[in-house]
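DM from R.C. (forwarded with permission)

"hey, sorry to bug you on a friday — could you get me a structure for this? deadline for the figure draft is monday and I only need the backbone to look sensible"
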Amino acid sequence: MNCQASVSVMLDEAKKWLAQENVCSSKITDIQIVLAEALNNVIEHGFSCENSGNAVVCIDMQDDIIVVEISDNGIEFTPPVAAQTPLQDTCDIEHLPEGGFGWFLIREITTSFTFHRIANMNRLVLNFQ
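My reply, with the result:
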């Protein structure tokens, strides 16, 4: 299975688990948007070529917070500090960039997140309230 197909499977599994936990559909959609963005970032920026790494997703409920943890053995990465989007750099609608909105979405949709590099693994923990 290629990496993009794996993302689809992970998103479907997350949706099923969240639905079983009685998470409302709008929250499931938010989580899927963030999860898709984060996993696509891992594939695009963390792995040197298709199918060259491993990513694991774990989801848990802690009181009223949904915790999604993504661990991968990709290239070391540090999320950008600023929540700036390409729209803040330009007002030219005709020449909008294709990317650069992912971390803005992640920051806007999550309640909080942390990122650590431990033992050659990237670990992104996303919290949703």
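R.C.: lifesaver. The mean pLDDT is 84.
me: no worries. The first strand starts at residue 55 and ends at 62.
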